[in-house]
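It is worth pausing here to work through a concrete case rather than discussing structure prediction in the abstract. The textbook approach is simple: state the sequence, then state the predicted structure, then interpret. We follow exactly that order.
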Amino acid sequence: MRIRTMIAKGATTTLLIAPVIAFGQELNGADTAWMMTSTALVLFMTIPGLSLFYAGLVRTRNVLSVLMQCFAITCVASMVWILLGYSLAFSQGNGFIGSLDKVLLAGVAEGSLSGTIPESVFVLFQMTFAIITPALIFGGFAERVRFGAVMLFSILWLLVVYVPVTHWVWASDGWLFKKGLLDFAGGTVVHITAGVGSLVCALVLGPRTGFGKTAMPPHNMTMTVTGAGMLWVGWFGFNGGSALAANGNAGMAMLVTHISAAAGSVAWMMMERIKFGKPSVLGIVTGMVAGLGTITPASGTVGPGGALIIGLTAGVVCFFATQAIKQKFKIDDSLDVFPVHGVGGIMGTFFAGIFTSSALGVFSGQGYADGFTMGSQLIVQLTGIVATLVYTAVLTFVVLKFVNVITGFRVTVEEETTGLDIVLHDERGYDL
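Step two, the predicted structure:
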């Protein structure tokens, strides 16, 4: 675990910042039980949460393809994490990438510890993050890509984008870790990488046939709202579990997560009421995701007041970002991954450097590390944002072009019109 001594209101406190391995401690049963629960909650976010959320948003002829991609990415990412991902992300290497010391989880035994929990539990918890991140990306190019291409892209993207950024931010020898970047649960590692990755894919692959001319409404909002509820519940494990302990830090992370989700939903709903005259069900659940994604990097350092501001801001800013992406820039980020997760991750990582301050009264957080001020912390936060954004954009483009040469990424117009369920899987989501 990553532990820093923080100075807050004249008192010295210990604050857990991010999930980095620390050895030499004793097993704690309560911490272990909480982390096993959190791991299940984060996996619950992908299957079934994200699966249902995304599947309800596409058209009827593509519902199975979305469910299939989420399920298959879960399987493939798990294998990649065991073979190479965990070792390259968390074993000691250099500032940019880990070593091969733990390939195939070499040395991860029943009795080996990561802090106060079994290392096996830490491996599995981090695996669930590696699962959901590429699963988020394909929302940017849903309904128009080949299944095999998505699988190959997910494998390569995990290894060349997700794993290095994870090492930068959460490994004890990572260069952003050493700079003091505040990213408690994945604003850079998960949300910026997934958001920017989806935007690059949407730009390179182009829009769905008929985008901007033909209405493409969600086919099953009931399914989407069900998935949204699962995401909200699962996010308690995502953020609260990142404390790696059953303690006050985990409890506060869960509290601010809930506050931000609620505030994001209300803010988005109000924006729709002002702009369109009526709030929508799709709007309220999208606002929830915006609030959750934006609080994620700050959830271990801010207080309830800061979380309220973060959530309200997320709902408003991500609403206008979604409108701009599709209406102004005409980019077919099919399921709004960049304007919600990408923009939310950027804002949340920046806000973490503000609302951690112990001098904001009711909006105060847990204070800065020794030697840090708001100005210096914001520079670190901006460095992490820019580095992650640029690296992800460039490497995603390279991986995308490589996969396109190897397998071809897009289906034909005829196949897209027929629907991916029949074309790729020879099945129908509904046969009534």
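Step three, interpretation. Residues 1-23 have pLDDT under 50 and may be disordered. The beta strands are 2-8, 11-18, 113-114, 117-118, 368-369.
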